[in-house]
Amino acid sequence: MVNINATMFWEVLNFFILLFLLRRFLYTPIKDMLDSRAAQINGDLDEAEKMKSEAADLKAQYEQKLKDARSEAQKIIDNAETRANKRAKNIIKEAEEKAEKVKEKKMEEIEQMRKETMAEMRNKIASFTVLAAGQLIQEQLDEEKHEVMINQFIDELDSDKLGEIK
Amino acid sequence: MNPGPQIKFYLFNKEYLPVTDTLIVGWVSVILILILAKYLTSNLKMRPEGKQNVAEMIIELIYDQIEPMLPNEGWRFLPFIATIFIYVGFSNLIGLVPGVTSPTGDLNTTLGLALVVFIVVQLEGMREHGVWGYIKSFAEPVIFLLPINVIGELAKPISHSFRLFGNIVGGGIIMTLIYQAAPALVPVPLHAWFDFFVGMIQALIFGMVAIAYISVAKS
Q1: What ranges do the domains of chain A cover?
Q2: CB distance from A14 to chain B under 8 Å?
Q3: pLDDT value at position A126?
Q4: CB B169 within 8 A of CB B127
Q5: How many CB pairs under 8 A join A and B?
Q6: What is the pTM of this model?
Q7: Cis preceding-peptide flag for B141 (omega within 30 of 0)
Q8: What is the percentage of chain A residues whose pLDDT exceeds 70?
């Protein structure tokens, strides 16, 4: 049952043949595959890291740009507001000035008209007074005619109710 | 009953070139392993799938056993150690096939492998420490331990080979007895134990011990 013979040599030969062929067909291809996969994964990881840092840089850049654009926009808005305010003030001032001018002109016209009216009235009152005085003086001269004159005056009023004042 | 290897015929009709059933099974094992390896590694892809995963898993599993004991030399020793694992494991498992004797149930196989391991161990020891340095290491820590160390070293291939041989042959003998006592159903779980479980464990032990011997010689 336990006898050592040439089988040992054959089995050792078997082992070495198997070792040689498995190295060729199993170990080397698998190792190459594992190595190349590891290399690829390493490369991919490096690439990913690079891309990540690039992306971070780009992000920072864009954020900076966005910030700049925002402050630029704010500046423009502020500018526009200031200008609009200034303009509005100007417009109001101009309008006020214009209104003041118009008012002054109108006041002058009113004053002018008042003066004219006063002058006219004065003239009319004067002539009226002169007329009335003239008539009074005329009638005083003749006592007898006093009655007649009153009557005549009344008649005149009657006949000419809407007589104009002269 | 004779559980040992049976001589089937003589190569070239020479009395000193007997061909036993275990040797024939050994040849068949080698061919089957090669076919399987070729099948598993055909069409390798960057993204592994199916059978490629199996092949990579086996190789990485064996690599993970070697690397911690022989740091940075995992890939260098992988072909040798992996061939031991695969050949011994397959030889143990093939005993499951009815009427087939495990090649590892023949002392010629196990002793042959153990002697190969023994030679590799000596060569690695000399490679690491130099020829003289390695020989001198047997006389350490004190000179009178030299014979004990030498006997201990020579005992390694014997214990290495007889452990595997004894386990497989013992399992085979027990299974033969069981078949004679209770041929139905009872042998099934026992086959699982003696052929599958013990077979796998012994293959693992044989390979691990080989790694351990190399590691000791290099330290």
Answers
A1: 7-159
A2: yes
A3: 84
A4: no
A5: 113
A6: 0.70
A7: yes
A8: 89
